[in-house]
Specification:
Blueprint: E1 5-10, H1 18-31, E2 36-41, H2 43-46, H3 53-70, E3 77-81, H4 87-96, H5 101-105, H6 108-116, H7 124-127, H8 129-138, E4 144-146, H9 152-169, E5 177-179, H10 214-223, H11 240-253, H12 257-263, H13 269-295, H14 298-327
Parallel strand pairs: 1-2, 2-3, 4-5
Helix pairs in contact: 3-13, 4-8, 4-14, 8-9, 10-13, 11-12, 11-13
This protein binds tryptophanyl-5'AMP.
Tryptophanyl-5'AMP binds next to strand 1, helix 1 and helix 8.
């Protein structure tokens, strides 16, 4: 019996990469056997920066197919689209009324993104992004939230919002905890190990996309930056670039970076990089093949999303109704 719940979400903003896979999706697949799992495609978060409508539509279905192709099983987990469950924006609004501006101003994702999008303009949705994310989590009483390290601050805010609400109105929300993998919670860019691997990196050599072809994968690993020296040793301070590549290999092999170090003792960067490229090709090819098959049968994907939305709504609507009652809103059944 799965008696604990998890919820997580990914933005359908395209270019899903191995950082998203190792920090989030790989955990999603593993955890669905232990937990009652809800995996959301957060389209309402994606529109906090400008999106082309056709691209957003495509990226949403693509992400659903990537979830499925990676091994999220709709018989075990609920896969759904955020905008199919109106309770998210409703609870997000309520939480906005309890979130001091200063707490939102401190969010590093907001600071980064508002700098990056300064030219097109920064909108209120981007500022309020974390309260919507808190709603995503709190609606499902998720005890655990599997994410990469960059989401930690948002989960801390979610915890304090839940505590604030519970203290003011009585016990309503479960206080969630982040689940972050030790070595794969923060995968860095292949072109610059001082910055995290990112979907929005200007240079596509920054990341390996989950749908990159084998040749593209080999090319990107070949040009990935390394450090001075030639030993494959795990040392985050002295060898940040090589250590990042070692973390990628260890995460795909489900072993510790030190095991990778032992395996490459006395061998150079070239052999290590060749093996890493082949490992990535070996791991990503089956995912790409399943993705291709699913993309030929999108009706099946839409059906999974529709079922997921029904299931998610049943849970979310109940929590929302309870929260509304607690704050003094008149329930609809008091009128009819
Ligand atoms: P998003 O779409 O930016 O990223 C999806 C997931 O990938 C992780 N991630 C990484 N992990 C390791 N190394 C990296 N370089 C790397 N880059 C990204 C992210 O931490 C994330 O887990 N705000 C969230 C989406 C969201 C959400 C939620 C998450 C909305 N509502 C509720 C959890 C629960 C985001 O922007 O993820």
């Amino acid at each position: 019996m799965k008696n604990q719940r998890i919820l997580s979400g990914i933005q359908p903003s395209g270019n899903l990469h191995i950082g998203n896979y190792l920090g989030a999706i790989k955990q999603f697949v593993e955890l669905q056997n232990e937990y009652e799992a809800f995996y959301c495609i957060v389209d309402e978060h994606a529109i906090t920066v400008p999106q082309d409508p056709k691209e957003l539509h495509k990226n949403t279905l693509d992400l659903a197919m990537i979830y499925l192709a990676a091994g999220i099983d709709p018989k075990k987990s609920v896969i759904f689209v955020q905008s199919h469950v109106p309770a998210h924006t409703e609870l997000g609004w309520i939480l906005n009324t309890m979130t001091p501006l200063g707490e939102l101003e401190r969010m590093t994702q907001f600071k980064d993104k508002s700098e990056r999008h300064a030219r097109e303009g920064v909108y209120a949705g981007l500022f309020n992004y974390p309260t919507l994310m808190a709603a995503d989590i709190l609606l499902y009483h998720a005890q655990k939230v599997p994410v990469g390290e960059d989401q930690l601050q948002h989960i801390e805010l979610t915890r304090s919002l839940a505590e604030r609400f519970n203290n003011r109105f009585g016990n309503t929300f479960t206080i969630p905890e982040p689940l972050i993998r030790e070595y794969s919670g923060r995968i860095m860019g292949l072109d610059d190990p001082s910055k995290k691997m990112s979907k929005s990196a200007g240079n596509s050599a920054n990341y390996i996309a989950l749908l990159d072809s084998p040749d593209e994968i080999r090319r990107k690993i070949k040009i990935a930056v390394t450090d001075s020296g030639k030993e494959v040793t795990f040392d985050e301070q002295e060898k940040p670039a090589v250590s990042n590549l070692m973390r990628i290999m260890s995460a795909f092999r489900d072993c510790a970076p030190k095991e990778v170090e032992m395996r490459y003792e006395g061998k150079g960067y070239a052999e290590f990089k060749d093996d890493l490229a082949e490992l990535l090709v070996e791991k990503l090819t089956p995912l790409q093949e399943k993705y291709r098959i699913l993309s030929e049968n999108q009706d099946e994907v839409l059906l999974i999303l529709a079922k997921g939305a029904m299931h998610a709504r049943a849970v979310a609507d109940k929590t929302l109704a309870k929260a509304k009652e607690k704050i003094g809103f008149v329930p609809i059944n008091a009128i009819t």
